[in-house]
Predict the structure.
Amino acid sequence: MELNNTGRVTLRTAVTIVVANMVGAGVFTVLGYQALGTAAVFPLLLLWVIGGVVAMCGALSYGEMAALFPRSGGEYNYLSNTYHPAFGFLSGWISATVGFSAPVAMAGVALGTYSSSIIGLPPQAIAIAVIILISIIHSTDVGLGSIFQQYSTALKVILIIGFIFGGLLLTPNPQPVMTALIPTEKDWSMVFSAGFAINLAFVSFAYSGWNAAAYLANEIENPRVNVPRALVTGTLIVMIAYILLNIVFLYTLPVNTYLTEQLANIKANKGPLEVGYLSAQQFLGDNGGKIMAGMIALLLISSISAMIFAGPRVMQTMGEDVKILNFLSYKNKKDIPVLAIILQSTISIILVLTAQFDTILSAIAFTLDIFTFATVLGVFVMRYKAPQAERAYKTWGYPITPLIFLGVTGWTMYYLLTERTIPSLIALGVVLLGLVVYFINQQTENKEAK
């Protein structure tokens, strides 16, 4: 990761952080889950187009919030200033407990699943070992962690480009994707179904991370300008890559294969479906597929690294503001939030050992949607509350772009709550637990003030 001569993160590095946070386990696994409820090419690809548009609308809106409140912490910072410190605390609480640690766990499990057949170790053991190793790297030295992040992200981009071109050029028996893109009446009925909305939540998770640069705004050079640029540029790059990747998946594998394999996987409780591996087998053969699985595992290392870098900065910011969590603000001599890194990685390891992939996915999607929805809504709130405030960046396409984000996100949240009720209620329980912690902290501070 590139730093300028003052030790601050450059725009190019901020873009790589966004890309690295976004491209993780989701794009290589969730298509198998989607096929269960949306088993047709047109609606499956439409999911990724809509997901990309929504992520871009979110990034455009976050850019204005980042320019208005240029401090690290992401939603914690924005919601505290826009609504109430308690709401900001809850968003930070979710980021601290599951917002980053759960995606790290999921990426670790996916990495272990892809690489276990090559290394010969259990997926969980591989996941835990990688999380610990990367945590040590980021806890040791910012420069070392920066170099690791930069090169692992570069490798990720190269692998994705190679996968796309390999699938399009080398597949011996391609599926008729282009003809299947012409929607039928049945396709449109799927688009307006509950299953499509839930699958869109899965896609939203795969796109999550588009707001990554906002979490370390204090460390980015000229944050009022470069944070919005990083958010939009990184999201656009990933949107294009995701759509092309899913075209390759559908080009190399029939949808029915996804259905059959996924159902078998769920019955056997094996966790995430190795869509990337199944696809690579079609144009590289069994041995080539294993090599590609190993390369995808390397790709996921960059995602884990980016989230271990960004997530603890939210915890650190909370620790500076909330007395009961003050220990999280601790930094070592090299200005690294070591305790926050340790806590986040510990939660990730616990999730690796105890949670199921699809349960984590539903819970994360619902909780994160709550706070991203409120943040984008904050663009309207702050335009009303502080119309004369300095804004180095204003949301492009306002008010249409934030309304698109709010409409689609609200739609998916409704169906998650009604169709995946238990995981959503568990997620709400974690949010309410954060509210208890907040009021305990308030009472503690009030007693000390007296």
User: Anything to note?
Assistant: Residues 82 and 382 are 7 Å apart (CA to CA).
